[in-house]
């Protein structure tokens, strides 16, 4: 291979890498996560790095135990950080594939990331939990309610 040809190919590879990095940078700029406490009184938003960018405390929190409120805030922040981290992992995986770079990024996420297999399981909607057996079956074999 001629040196000029090799240099031209190398230049093209560098330009492609630069364009890919720019695209990833733009995608990561749009990443963020948010979470709301189960009672709906606390909402937090974080950016791609997990830094808190917004905190909303509803007026109903007045008079609440400060330790409970701070604990609920920290739980919501961790959930929002996991959501943002999941987006980062997805972008990195799509752009660069699995490998040492992605493993390194994953290892630096203090709260893990959504989709890492440790997500809390959402309860089934009530409609799916209902016992839909015919009445004769239900009363012949009632559910165990004293579990």
UniProtKB/TrEMBL annotation:
<feature type="compositionally biased region" description="Basic and acidic residues">
    <location>
        <begin position="126"/>
        <end position="136"/>
    </location>
</feature>
<feature type="region of interest" description="Disordered">
    <location>
        <begin position="107"/>
        <end position="147"/>
    </location>
</feature>
<dbReference type="Pfam" id="PF02575">
    <property type="entry name" value="YbaB_DNA_bd"/>
</dbReference>
<protein>
    <recommendedName>
        <fullName>YbaB/EbfC DNA-binding family protein</fullName>
    </recommendedName>
</protein>
<dbReference type="InterPro" id="IPR036894">
    <property type="entry name" value="YbaB-like_sf"/>
</dbReference>
<dbReference type="InterPro" id="IPR004401">
    <property type="entry name" value="YbaB/EbfC"/>
</dbReference>
